[in-house]
């Protein structure tokens, strides 16, 4: 009887743990158009990136940033790498269907970028 209880407990624990994280992967969440809400440059608010947007498609990213108008990007774990003349790498601090916070370096300067999604993939 104890073996049956332990087996049932193990099965229940497995079901609970496997259903805990049903969040879509970063590759799905990132797709769409993102417009910057706020930027920190070296830890201080900056307006130099006002109007910045990224539009992520299946395998390419479009932007109004001159150095990366249309390039390939790759997501590995929680990092977005954008191919460009000066490649960019951002750590995804947080992302959901409407907000994305990135942490990375642009032209050797540290930035924290906060975006809102304006268009979802396929819109």
What attributes does this structure have?
123 residues, alpha+beta, Lipocalin, 9 strands, 48% strand, globular
Short structural summary:
The chain is of the alpha+beta class and 123 residues long. Helices cover 17% and strands 48% of the residues.
Q: Can you lay out the helices and strands and say which pair or pack?
A:
Layout: H1 2-18, H2 26-29, E1 32-41, E2 44-45, E3 53-56, E4 60-63, E5 70-76, E6 79-82, E7 88-95, E8 99-106, E9 109-120
Antiparallel strand pairs: 1-2, 1-3, 1-9, 3-4, 4-5, 5-6, 6-7, 7-8, 8-9
* Major β-sheet strand ordering: 1-3-4-5-6-7-8-9
From the N-terminal CA to the C-terminal CA, the straight-line distance is 56 Å
- What is the typical, i.e. mean, pLDDT? 85
Radius of gyration: 19 Å
Oligomer: single chain
CATH architecture: Beta Barrel
Structural class: alpha+beta
Morphology: globular
CATH top level assignment: Mainly Beta
> DSSP helix count?
2
The tally of beta strands, per DSSP, is 9
Which sequence of SSEs, written as H and E, runs from N to C? Answer: HHEEEEEEEEE
Helix content: 10-25%
User: Largest beta sheet, briefly?
Assistant: 8 strands, antiparallel, barrel
Q: Strand percentage, roughly? A: over 45%
């Amino acid at each position: 009887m104890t073996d049956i209880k332990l087996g049932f407990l193990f099965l229940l624990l497995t079901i609970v743990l496997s259903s805990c994280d049903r969040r879509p992967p970063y590759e799905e969440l990132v797709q769409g158009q993102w417009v910057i809400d706020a930027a920190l440059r070296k830890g201080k608010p900056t307006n130099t990136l006002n109007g910045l947007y990224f539009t992520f498609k299946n395998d390419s990213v479009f932007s109004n940033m001159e150095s990366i108008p249309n390039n390939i990007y790759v997501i590995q774990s929680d990092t977005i790498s954008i191919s460009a003349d000066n490649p960019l790498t951002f750590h995804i601090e947080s992302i959901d269907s409407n907000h994305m916070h990135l942490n990375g370096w642009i032209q050797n300067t540290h930035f924290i970028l906060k975006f809102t999604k304006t268009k979802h993939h396929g819109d």
